[in-house]
Amino acid sequence: MAIVIDPATRADLEERIRFYRDLGLTEFYRRPVDEALLQKLQAAAAAEPVAVAASVATEPAAAPPVAAAPHPLVSSPHNPMYEESAIPPRKPFPAAPEIGVVVPPAERAQALQIIRDEIGDCKRCALHAGRNKLVFADGDPNARLMFVGEGPGADEDMQGLPFVGKAGQLLNNMITAMGLKREQVYIANVVKCRPPQNRTPEPDEAHTCVPFLFRQIDVVRPQVLVALGATAATYLLGQRQPLAGLRGRVHAFRGTQLIVTYHPAFLLRDPRQKKEAWADLQIAMRELGLKLPGK
Ligand code: SF4
C-alpha cells in the first residue's frame, strides 16, 4: 500500500535527511511494509473503542485489573510484532583504480581535456536524464589545492560549472580566507550531473562516475585535497564513516594529503559549524605552507 506524504512533511523529511547526510550519516533504511500486519493493526485500531465500550458494559465494577496484552501499535523491542526486519548487507566499495602516471605540468590541461572528451555526452548512469549541463570541473590544472564536492546543484547545472550558487559563494570566501584566489585551485565533484531534487547520488551513480574524478585527481596531483562533506569523503576514501571520525586530521590519499570538512551548503544551513570548518582549512593551509592568521 502506497503511503501518501503531504508536501510539507516531505519537505521536512528531506531537510532532515540532508542534515543527517551532512553530518556523515549517509545510510538509511526503511522497514518494508508488512501488508498483513498493517491490516491487522488497522482492524485492531478500528475495533478498539467498541471493545472498550463493550468491556465497560459487561464487566463487573469490582473485576480485578488484568494485565494488558502488548498493543500491537506500541513500538517496543519486547513486542514480538515489532521485530526489526533484516537490514540488507552493505555492498563493498569497488577497488579504486591504479594511480595514473605523473603528467608534466605543461600537459595537464590537455590531459584533463582528454578525460572530458572521453566522458562526452555521457549516459553511463541514470543522472544523465535530468541534467541540463554536465559539470566537469573548474580551475587551475596545476593547482596545489583541490576541492571535491558531491554533485552539481541547480545553478551549477545551468552554468556547467561547479560551486557557482550560494554554496559556491561561501566556498569562494573560504578560499579567499586561506589567502588564495578561486582561479588558483581546482574544483570538481563526485558526480558530474545534477541528481534530481539535489538528492544524494545513489551508490551505483557515484561508483559509475567517480573513476573520472580519480583520473582528474591523478592528473592535477594536488598537494592537498579537501573533501567537502560526507559524500565526497565516502567515495574518495572508499569507506562509510561519520564525518566526525574523518575531520581534523590528514589522510594519505593517492599521493596527496586529504582533509575532510563540511560541505558549504551545510555551513549555510548551520553557520555555527563554520568555526570547525575553518579549523579544517587551517590544517590544509599548514600542509600547503600558507601563512596562518595571526602568525
Ligand atoms: S553523473 Fe557521471 S556517469 Fe552519470 S551520466 Fe553524468 S557524467 Fe555520466
Ligand roster: iron/sulfur cluster
> Which structural class best describes the helix and strand composition?
alpha/beta
Could you name the CATH class of the domain at 105-288? Alpha Beta
Strand content: 5-15%
Specify the number of helices.
10
Radius of gyration: 26 Å
* Element string (H = helix, E = strand): HHHEEHHEHEHHEEHH
Major beta sheet, strand line-up: 1-3-2-4-6-5
Number of strands: 6
Nearest-integer average pLDDT: 84
Low-confidence stretches: 50-88
- Describe the main β-sheet briefly: 6 strands, mixed
Estimated helix fraction:
40-55%
C-alpha termini separation = 63 Å
The appropriate CATH architecture of the domain at 105-288 is: 3-Layer(aba) Sandwich
CATH topology of the domain at 105-288: Uracil-DNA Glycosylase, subunit E
**Shape annotation:** globular
The CATH superfamily of the domain at 105-288 is known as Uracil-DNA glycosylase-like domain
Structure report:
It is built from ten helices and six strands, in the order αααββααβαβααββαα. Residues 50-88 have low confidence and may be disordered. It is an alpha/beta fold and 295 residues long. It has a domain at 105-288: 3-Layer(aba) Sandwich (Uracil-DNA Glycosylase, subunit E), CATH 3.40.470. A six-stranded mixed β-sheet has the order 1-3-2-4-6-5, sandwiched between helices. It is globular and about 75 Å long. α3 (108-119) runs antiparallel to α6 (203-220). Bound molecules: iron/sulfur cluster. Iron/sulfur cluster (SF4) is lined by residues 119, 122-125, 127-128, 134, 191-193, 205, 208-209.
Quick recap:
With 295 residues, this protein is an alpha/beta fold. The protein is built from 10 helices and 6 strands.
